[in-house]
Every structure is written in C-alpha cells, then in structure tokens.
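Structure in, sequence out. Go:
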C-alpha cells in the first residue's frame, strides 16, 4: 500500500552523502568561478557544475520531502526534510553569484555561451530574460538565503490542517460516524445518505472554522510575500510577476477565468439540477454537489482491477507507455494508504535522475480513484519522456500545460470505457465520470478557486491585506456568481478557501482548465487518428520546458492564441450534460 522511496536512494545514508556533495559542489563553484564568469568557456563549465548540483539537490529534497508528505505527524521525517532544505538553500545561496555575473557578461560572450551551452543554453536565455528584474548580487544572495522561510506559510498551513486539526466523531439518527480531513473529502462528500452527508459537512466545517484565523494569517503572509517580491523586482504588478516565469500573458490568464465563469455556469447549473432530480433532494445545497448521478452503478474497484483499467484505457498511448503503467504497480511507485497525517488529494513527483515517479493517493476503491490514478500516471509519463530527453534545466515545465498530460489520460480512460458497453445506464455512468469528475474538478472546483485567488491578489496588489472574513466573503461571492440560485450555499461553503494546497503554489489553480482545454482537443485527435496523433503528443511532452505554452499547444495541433479551443471545450461539456439529461429520461 505504500511507495518505495528506496527507488531514489537505497538508504538515508546514501541520500545524506548526496546532500553533502550538493554542499561541496556549491563550494567548488564559488571557489573556482566566482568573479570569473567573463568568457563563454568558463560560463558553460560553471553552469554544468551548477546543473549537477541542482539535479542532486532536487533528488535529495524529494527523497526527504516525500517521506514527510505521507506522515506530517512523524517528527523525524519533518526534521529530516527541514535539514535537507537547509542544505540545499545554503548551496543555492553560495551559487547565487552565477545569475548576477551572467547578466553582467558581454553580449557576444553570452551569445557564444548559448551556442556552446547544450543543456544549459536555455538557462542562460532565461536569466537574460529576467535581467530587468534582477537585483544587486548582495540582495540576490540575501533573498536566496531567506528562501526557505518563504515557504513557511505553506508549512504552517499544512501543520494546522494535517497535524493539529483533530476531528470528533459525529452522530446521525443514533449511529456514530468517524470524521477526518481525507475521510470527509474522499468519502462523506460522495455519501448517498443525505442526512449523513449534510451532517458530515456541518461537522467538518465547524472544525476547520476553528482554524480559520491561523490559516488566514499564513495565507496573508504568503500572498503579501508575492507582492513584496513583485515590487522589489520591479514588476508592474503581482500578476505580471506570477506569470513571468510561466511565459503566460495576462490575457491568456484572464480569459481562462472569465470565459468559463460566464459560459460554463449555465451548463453546470443544469447539471446541479439533474443531481437534485435523480436523488430526489428537497433542495440542492453546496454539500450535495459531489453526489454522483448514479452511485449504485459505481463499481468498487480493487487495486488489481485498477491496474487493468488504466493499462487498457491507456493502451492507445503505445506499448512503452503501458509498460510504464505496469512498472508503477510492480515497483511500488504509488502510495495508496490512507493514514493520519498524510497529505490530502493526490500528486505525482518525478525527481530528475531517479528511475521512478512517486504518486500519492488516498485510495478508496472507487472508480473516481482509478481516474485519479490515470491522471497522476499522466504526470509520470510526461516527466519520464522529458527527463529522458532534456537536461535538468529544461524539465522545469510551467504550470500552464503541466495538467494537460494528466487530464488527457482521464479522457482517454473515458473514451475506452465508452466502447465497452452501450446500455443507457452504463453510458450515463461513463458520462458522469467525465463530467462529475474530470470536468467538474478541473473546470469548476479549480476554476472557482482561481477566480477567488484573482480577487485576493487584486486586494494585495492595491496594498491591502486579507483576513478570514474577507476571504470567506470573496469565496462566497464567487460561488454565488457561478451557481446563482440553483445551489443553496450551506453555511461552511465559504470556508472552501481553507481547503486547497494549491493556493500556496502561485497561480496554479487556473492552469487545470488550461491544461484540460488542450487535452480535450488532443484526446479527440488521439481517439480518432491513433498513432500519428500519439506521436505528436509524445513529441510535445518530450520537449519539456524548451517550449512556451503556446508552442507546446501548437506541437499538439491546438491553437490557443484565440479563445476558440476554450469555448469549444465549454460547449462540449454542455453537450455531455445534455446527453446525460436525455439518457436519464430514457432510463426512467
Ligand atoms: Zn495533476
């Protein structure tokens, strides 16, 4: 049930040995290259050494960080992770002179270095691109040294949520039920017994509300940090700063939020009405939105069956891809366990230079978990391709398309399932997986988060600050705008701002729908054309961060310079909902 971090390092001693080497490489860089980055040959040599250091630092941080993610109550794991972070921060502080000296070098020298740089060429280009925002060498050094504290808000958030928050049992109609963070998000939100589901929502909300001030303080520190850095570095506003490294324009960002808020809302209200009707609810509340259209039909899935579903569903991606899927199960890349102190939700980490990816899940034997698994394996497949094709610096894939290879796997799985039966009830169930899981999660949940986040950053950008009640009000406004009067906002709905770790990862939330827009078009191509489309897709994935989001989409045959693919995707979601409504009439 647990993953095997031994795939990165056999023992912790081995990892500490590499951590030591990270420090030594940083010292070597400082001793041999500081003050000397004036000719192309020296620049390229130094950057290759730095590349090696960064690669090892990533491996070490992942090894100790991942151990902590599975149990935040394990104080030794937390201490190890902190220690590893300190070591890498120190190494980056020592080597912060590199960027400062690079931007001061002659243009002709840099051009020569870029030509001769190989895997470090794009790194040089990116440093030059950021030149207008670079501060003096001493200031850069101080900022890097303070780097590990920059993540303190996220650590506080996680400790409050995963270690300190203890949920009491609750009772409904004489029966007692246990409650926990994951238990609520993975089980009770989908619970068919309306009394139990709504009671769980109430108890969950009451508990998290007790932590709203500490969470708001951590979050305010986080977003204010972004604003301070944006100002110090001379960005026009905090948005320009947050989108700069992503190579995404403000237009592209705003469009994603505005188009979906306006055009998807009517379809989703129809979907909410369908849930209410099918479940014969007295009213549709926020606590009922995760209900599946046909929960009785939802098969329980064992881990063995999941492997078969995913392998068959992704067979269209080719033999090599499927063998990676089997490898993930056989070699224990996946942490299925549901223990206290474990990070909620799911993610996939693919340390550069390790032979495996690491997938964290909260496995509940549901079909929805199979979709999550296909999703995370999409990240693994992406990084296997680009880690094997590019140097370390060219695998720092931006958020805008990082969720495309993951969400496309969910769609390919749906495409496969659709072909396995044509009974109306089965068909509706498959559609409900796509709408209720894939599109709901990426186009609704994360999108509403993105709309909320944009409002928060607007306040911060104007020099304001945010407290628990401001955040709740913003969240409530966003929900009201989207759901109208179709969904009653149960007390506690406004606290959703407390639940998502992505708020501590820059403007991450909006990228899910951006990725899925590309994935929607691409999956249609793959299901229709087969091999040639798969080849295009793999080529785009292998490109890593050598391409911008626009170029990436273009390699996949999708033009995101206009809003057409997005509008088309929204219409497609609408058509799926219409089809579900029609099938429901038939089934009756
Ligand atoms: Zn993902």
């Amino acid at each position: 049930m647990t993953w095997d971090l031994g795939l990165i390092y056999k023992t912790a001693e081995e990892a500490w040995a590499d951590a030591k080497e990270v420090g030594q490489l940083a010292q070597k860089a400082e001793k041999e290259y500081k003050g000397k980055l004036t000719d192309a040959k020296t620049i390229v040599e130094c950057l290759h050494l730095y590349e090696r250091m960064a690669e090892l630092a990533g491996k070490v941080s992942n090894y100790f960080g991942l151990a902590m993610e599975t149990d935040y109550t394990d104080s030794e794991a937390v201490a190890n992770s902190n220690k590893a972070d300190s070591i890498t921060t120190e190494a980056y502080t020592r080597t912060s002179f590199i960027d400062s000296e690079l931007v001061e070098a002659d243009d002709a020298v840099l051009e020569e270095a870029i030509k001769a740089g190989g895997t470090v060429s794009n790194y040089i280009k990116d440093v030059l691109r950021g030149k207008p925002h670079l501060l003096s060498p001493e200031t850069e050094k101080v900022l890097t040294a303070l780097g590990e504290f920059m993540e303190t808000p996220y650590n506080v958030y996680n400790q409050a949520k995963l270690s300190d928050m203890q949920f009491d049992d609750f009772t409904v109609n004489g029966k007692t039920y246990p409650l926990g963070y994951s238990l609520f998000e993975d089980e009770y939100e989908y619970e068919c017994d309306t009394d139990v589901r709504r009671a769980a929502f109430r108890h969950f909300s009451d508990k998290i509300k007790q932590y709203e001030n500490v969470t708001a303080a951590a979050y305010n520190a986080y977003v204010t940090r972004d604003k301070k850095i944006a100002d110090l570095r001379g960005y026009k506003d905090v948005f320009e700063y947050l989108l700069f490294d992503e190579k995404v324009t403000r237009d592209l960002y705003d469009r994603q939020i505005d188009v979906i808020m306006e055009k998807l809302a009517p379809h989703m209200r129809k979907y909410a009405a369908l849930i209410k009707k099918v479940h014969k609810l007295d009213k549709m509340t926020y606590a009922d939105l995760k209900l599946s259209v046909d929960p009785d039909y939802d098969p329980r899935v064992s881990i063995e069956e999941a492997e078969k579903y995913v392998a068959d569903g992704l067979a269209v991606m080719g033999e090599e891809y499927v063998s990676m899927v089997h490898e993930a199960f056989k070699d224990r890349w996946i942490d299925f366990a549901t223990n206290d102190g474990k990070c909620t939700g799911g993610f996939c980490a693919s340390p550069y230079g390790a032979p495996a990816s690491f997938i964290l899940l909260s496995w509940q034997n549901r079909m929805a978990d199979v979709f999550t698994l296909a999703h995370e394996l999409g990240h693994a497949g992406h990084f296997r391709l680009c880690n094997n094709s590019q140097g370390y610096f060219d695998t720092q894939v931006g958020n805008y398309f990082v969720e495309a290879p993951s969400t496309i796997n969910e769609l390919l799985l749906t495409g496969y399932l659709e072909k396995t039966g044509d009974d109306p009830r089965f068909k509706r169930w498959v559609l409900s997986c796509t709408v209720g899981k894939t599109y709901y999660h990426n186009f609704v949940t994360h999108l509403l988060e993105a709309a909320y986040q944009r409002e928060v950053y607007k306040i911060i950008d104007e020099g304001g600050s945010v407290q628990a009640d401001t955040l709740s009000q913003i969240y409530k406004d966003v929900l009201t705008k989207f759901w109208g009067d179709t969904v009653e906002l149960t007390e506690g709905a406004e606290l959703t701002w407390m639940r998502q770790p992505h708020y501590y990862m820059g403007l991450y939330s909006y990228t899910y729908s951006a990725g899925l827009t590309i994935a929607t078009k691409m999956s249609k191509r793959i299901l229709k054309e087969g091999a040639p489309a798969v080849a295009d897709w793999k080529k785009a994935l292998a490109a890593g961060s050598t391409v911008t989001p626009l170029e990436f989409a273009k390699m996949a045959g999708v033009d995101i310079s206009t809003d057409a693919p997005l509008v088309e995707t929204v219409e497609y979601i609408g058509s799926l909902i219409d089809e579900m409504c029609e099938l429901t009439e038939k089934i009756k």
